[in-house]
Amino acid sequence: MSRYWSDIVHQLTPYVPGEQPKIAGLVKLNTNECPYPPSPRVLQAIAEQTGEALRLYPDPQATALREAIARHHGLKAEQVFVGNGSDEVLAHVFMALLRHEAPLLHPDISYSFYPVYARLYGITTREIPLDEQFAIRVDDYLAAPANGGIIFPNPNAPTGMALPLSEVRRLLQGNRESVVVVDEAYVDFGAESAARLVDEFPQLLVVHTLSKSRALAGLRVGYALGHPDLIEALVRVKDSFNSYPLDRLAIAGGVAAMDDVAWFEDTCRRTIATRERMAAALRDRGFEVLPSAANFVFARHPGHDGAELAAGLREQRVLVRHFRRPERIAAFLRISVGTEEQTDALLAALDTVLAR
Amino acid sequence: MSRYWSDIVHQLTPYVPGEQPKIAGLVKLNTNECPYPPSPRVLQAIAEQTGEALRLYPDPQATALREAIARHHGLKAEQVFVGNGSDEVLAHVFMALLRHEAPLLHPDISYSFYPVYARLYGITTREIPLDEQFAIRVDDYLAAPANGGIIFPNPNAPTGMALPLSEVRRLLQGNRESVVVVDEAYVDFGAESAARLVDEFPQLLVVHTLSKSRALAGLRVGYALGHPDLIEALVRVKDSFNSYPLDRLAIAGGVAAMDDVAWFEDTCRRTIATRERMAAALRDRGFEVLPSAANFVFARHPGHDGAELAAGLREQRVLVRHFRRPERIAAFLRISVGTEEQTDALLAALDTVLAR
Fold it and tell me: Which chain A residues are within 8 Å of B267, Cβ to Cβ?
């Protein structure tokens, strides 16, 4: 508290990211990072940029990166906005496209950064409950009174559950007066991307990150795909905030990551295979596991408390994420998909904890 | 224009950064980059981080970097805030500390991003004119009605002129009810830093960048120094915007840049020597050159139009910056200090243009 703070600062409840432990040797399954390294071509591209040119500003439009992303999705560069991680992209989306008189709709169980952005920019929100099976029900969004925008992750986080593309399309067909943001941070692990609908729906914005399927959480690159009018709004806000959000190394590494499709597809394939093995092993141990299309699973055990399980695993040097709220998910653990070895370690630790 | 835009987007007039030419072979003296490379220790530190660990999120608090900055200035890490370039730091400063009912004061001739931030966040501003010699006059700030904050660059941009530390102190002594931001992007080239006043004045925030004297415009690292209460406001806004603004490579490179004091001091010394030679050579050619404490000079020629001179130099493949507004500086050119060779090329090009 300080008399020097702007009023808004007193009202903020900042987002709390998953723990980044400074102790080595932990099995870290708490922040949905990729267990496999980024493409060697990414490291090569960064190494080539690590020189005298760092004295010069980067390209403020990051054109090479927007072109690489456009190539990957079969779109044009003017349909692509890039930012310093998808969290920054989302922040600009809230300011540029979701700040209207009518409330923004988002699922009640969802990425917990959404209400934080909304508070920062003074945006009213309305939470739409997931159904009893923890699924997003499109009809609930279509039935709500006038909205100033809709945002949801697909697959949803922390449930991991995917909304079929046909349902996303139905939502877009029924909601044309406000922007619909599909936050696809985890889409590459088994859901269908709405990127292919961008040419069809001018109110659609699709947000991606290189932090998950491209194994670059440490490089901070995210992007949005949409109609050039939506992209222009984001550029205007970005150019009123920071002309150069992406440094030279992130731009170079990002281009290489988008271009190395074989590496990316292999990473996704391995992650999905391990996820399915882990989900089956958890079910064998009595867990209810929601059907995941992401690089994590969301699971609860009928005989054990979520917080206690998470604490027990931590004693065994395995980190997973537990959310106390909302109440409805307090029994669940969110467990990132690790390597085969990390998964074995998780299962062994679980056996110890469950046997107590 | 689009019906999907938030109201604020229609009102924005984004900042326009200096041209980043895609053609090679130009003598680029238009964006105040450092003409000398960053420390080899920076490149080494980045190379060491360019590996598998990029799959992991960076430290959201960038503790190692804040500690290195604190060491350099003889402060504590909790007095340091870091961001993705000083432009991002300034954006958060406007939101967190300068958004009050009373207007924000800044010089009429100053960093042209200030009014852009103010518009983005709905902050009222009042411009305080520089005096006839283009100097900031502290008495004009002290005489103004109640303010919601004061911000100015020191040295000022684009004039390059420094305000003595005694005058900064006098401003702080007379203005204790609102935050005073001293934006010291160019301070290392000859002005006195207010960093040493941070322990004394709880309303003082000093902003620095690694883009100039540390030759890292391409890496995007900036920071603020101030009382822990001011830093906390910035952290709250940052954690409501983007948990991880600095990537792993920027953190590692930033630490090495702060630690290599000898390289930094040598860069400053060479830049200052060339600046003085360039200023003298410009005066020899009939220019009026404002006394610069920065890595650029601001100069006008009584017999030549500023815009025409800039265009003529561009034909000679030398880029400098010209501002059409405000009217009072339309005759001036802002010329970055380059290498000795670049300076020779500038002077030769000027001789050609002036002889026409």
Answer: none
